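Appendix B, example 12.
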Amino acid sequence: MATSETGTSTSNPFGGEYQVFLSFRGPDTRRGFADTLYHALSEAGIHVFIDNEEIRPGERIDGELLRAINDSRLYIPIFSPNYASSYWCLCELAKMVENISNPREDETKKVILPIFYDVKPDDVKL
């Protein structure tokens, strides 16, 4: 089960609890790039969702994680060498794409801002 590390339950000006949803492969970036990005955004006053546990294969995306994806306005998947080997990273990415492809009438536009970390263009071109 994933949980937030933001430690806040205040609402953001865009309607949900979170403004940004970070998706990343833990072993590749958690203790480095993803953690640094999370802290920089948080210090700038941006409400960021970052999970603090690995979701094991066979588990369902829990309510908080699904709600964080749905409520966030900006999605930042961090594509790293092993991102696509994670079932959960791909599930999160699929949900992000679904949300921007089929927006609800009552919500603001959502955006995916991908970051390519430690990968070559040939690794991800397809």
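Strands lie at 20-24, 48-49, 74-79, 111-112, 115-116. The CA atoms of residues 3 and 46 lie 17 Å apart.
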